[in-house]
Design brief:
The protein has 75 residues and is of the alpha+beta class. The chain has a domain of 51 residues. It has a 4-stranded antiparallel sheet, with no helix packed on it. Strand 1 and strand 2 form a beta hairpin. The longest helix is centred in the middle third of the chain and has 9 residues. It is elongated and about 65 Å long. The structure holds zinc ion (ZN). Zinc ion (ZN) binds next to loops.
Length: 75
């Protein structure tokens, strides 16, 4: 379940909520003053999404040597 970040427009408090993607657009209330707050773009959430595709080749390449085809090694 992704973490979403919110910032309260009234008291400027930053807070995070763990909620299902299906509820990501629902209003979130500030824990301090209960004003409906705006969702910020979450760096953490975008990292989770990236790990499915873009980050896997990097992880494999760093631990698997040079035999991925880039250096001509035929092992
Ligand atoms: Zn607030």
């Amino acid at each position: 379940m992704p973490v979403y970040e919110y910032v309260c427009p009234s008291c400027k408090t930053d807070f995070e909520l763990l909620r299902p993607i299906t509820k990501m657009d629902e209003a979130a209330k500030c824990p301090d003053c209960e004003v409906i707050s705006d969702r910020k773009l979450s760096v953490f959430a975008s990292m989770l999404m990236g790990s499915d595709g873009a980050m896997l080749p990097m992880a494999g390449g760093s631990g698997g040597g040079c035999c991925g085809g880039g250096c001509g090694c035929s092992a």
